């Protein structure tokens, strides 16, 4: 099922203390944290000691995946099974944000960070047992 209205989502900085913070994704009409994405980004920042800037970059990529999935009514497992469609969407959608590259298709070098963020997110889901065997097979085996 495809929704008619685009989903609203944004990334925000979450300060945990005066010196520690990470970025996460808020979505939906009330802009609540996307729990599985938030869990992954917190794990990157505090469990794997990634830089705050890494969580900001990954949050942007995971926000786009989340919006794409939600607008199509896909669960995380369903989205994994349609990952080739999502990658094609990334490759064929001109950059919408203002600035350098606005209106142009992404280059291969700009797709690599998006794919790394998605790969890490799905590995995290698999580690937690939240990924069905078919989805795991589709993503991580040849």
Q: What is the chain-wise order of helices and strands?
A: EEEHHHHHH
Largest sheet: 3 strands, antiparallel
The helix tally amounts to 6
Assign a percent range to the helix content. 40-55%
Structural class determined from secondary elements: mainly alpha
Q: State mean pLDDT (0 to 100 scale).
A: 92
Number of strands: 3
User: What low-confidence regions span 5 or more consecutive residues with pLDDT below 50?
Assistant: none
Quaternary assembly: single chain
How much of the sequence is in beta strands? 5-15%
Write the layout of secondary structure elements.
Layout: E1 9-15, E2 21-27, E3 32-33, H1 35-47, H2 52-71, H3 76-81, H4 83-92, H5 108-127, H6 133-140
Antiparallel strand pairs: 1-2, 2-3
Give a verbal description of the structure:
The protein has 142 residues and is mainly alpha-helical. The protein contains six helices and three strands, in the order βββαααααα. Helix 1 (35-47) runs antiparallel to helix 2. The longest helix has 20 residues, at 52-71. The protein is globular and about 40 Å long. The two termini are 29 Å apart. The model has no long low-confidence stretch (mean pLDDT 92).
